[in-house]
Amino acid sequence: MNVSVDPWRCQGHMQCVAIAPRLFRYDDELSHAVPVGTTVEPAALELVRRAVAACPEQAITLAGDDEP
Fold first, then answer.
1. pLDDT value, residue 67
2. Which of 25, 35, 59, 66 is 20 to 30 Å from the Cα of 9, by its Cα?
3. pLDDT at 65
4. Quick one: CA torsion of 17, 22, 27, 32, rounded to 10 degrees?
5. How far apart are the first and last CA of the chain?
6. DSSP H helical segments within the chain, as ranges?
7. What is d(CA 24, CA 21) in angstroms, rounded to the nearest whole number?
8. Domains and CATH numbers, the chain
9. What is the pLDDT of residues 11-65, one digit of tens each?
């Protein structure tokens, strides 16, 4: 699974960082949250789903891998 944060939607509420600090961080220069990595390991999937659900701007996208 892949995760991304839409920089145009993210308003820096940092709910994702609060829920999953090892998976998201706030970038001061960009003024929005960013994922630490784009690939989500299966063990972290539930935390990312919680972060997606908690984002007030719906700026986080979780998508499946298209590769076999």
1. 42
2. 66
3. 57
4. -40
5. 12
6. 15-19, 45-54
7. 5
8. 2-63 (3.30.70.20)
9. 999 999 999 999 999 999 999 999 999 899 999 999 999 999 999 999 999 998 5
